[in-house]
Amino acid sequence: MLPFQTGWELKTPNEAGIDFDPDETGSSFLENALLKAAFLHRLLEEHRPATYTVGDPLIADDSGLCVDALDGRPGIHSARYGGKKLSAADKNALLLSELGDNNQRSGRFVCAMVLYYGPDRYYVAQETLEGELVNSVEAALGSGGFGYDPILYIPELGRTVAELSDEEKNRLSHRGKAARAIGRFLC
After folding, report:
1. pTM, whole model, 2 decimals?
2. Residues facing residue 65 across a β-bridge
3. Closest CA to 185 of 112, 111, 110, 114
């Protein structure tokens, strides 16, 4: 659910009966978000589900975790980091083992979000949630959220992202901030 009111009925591709699995071949979060938006736009134009009218906007995003000491890795490869078959816990363990005892623990979640009307008309917002990587797998805390949330610690709050309530996460997260920015174009 997006953290803003639009008056629009928002549906995922799956809810609209569309098989959506684009190749993420971009070199940035923004490029991947635009690739996803263009791919979905083509699918909607070709299949025209009953809930879609030509000219309706669509929203696509790409996001991930960027770790400074790892030159921004996993970055755009966050979902596939270490291979598609690794669980979230295994990806977290891999990332923390690569980081080792490096004192530079800064990192951030990044989200590029696109409000897409067509190839020549779209709006973009890119936002971050800054934090620090925990020191070990044992220091990963929280059961909320998913993916890397248990290992990104927010010093100002004294908690990991996985320990935040849904309300806090919507207010502070990279996706929540990007969605609110995009939402201003829909209101």
Report:
1. 0.91
2. 109
3. 114
The position carrying tokens 């696509």 is 60
Q: Which of 27, 86, 105, 30 is nearest to 63 (CA)?
A: 30
Burial class (CB in 10 A: 0-12, 13-18, 19+), 109: buried
Query: Which residue of the set 21, 62, 90, 101 is catalytic?
Result: 62
- Confidence band (pLDDT; 50, 70, 90) for 26? very high
Count of Cβ atoms closer than 10 Å to residue 22 Cβ: 16
117 touches 134 (CB < 8 A):
no
DSSP code at position 151: G
pLDDT digits (tens, 9 = 90+) for 88-132: 999 999 999 999 999 999 999 999 999 999 999 999 999 999 999
Q: Hey, where are the domains in the chain?
A: 29-186
| Residue corresponding to tokens 């190839």 | 119
Collapse the DSSP code of 20 into the 3-class scheme (helix H, G, I; strand E, B; otherwise coil) and give the result: coil
**DSSP-H helix ranges across 29-154:** 29-47, 88-99
Longest dimension (CA), the chain: 54
Cis peptide before 74 (omega within 30 of 0): yes
Whether 62 is a known active-site residue: answer yes
Q: Which CATH architecture has domain 29-186?
A: Alpha-Beta Complex (3.90)
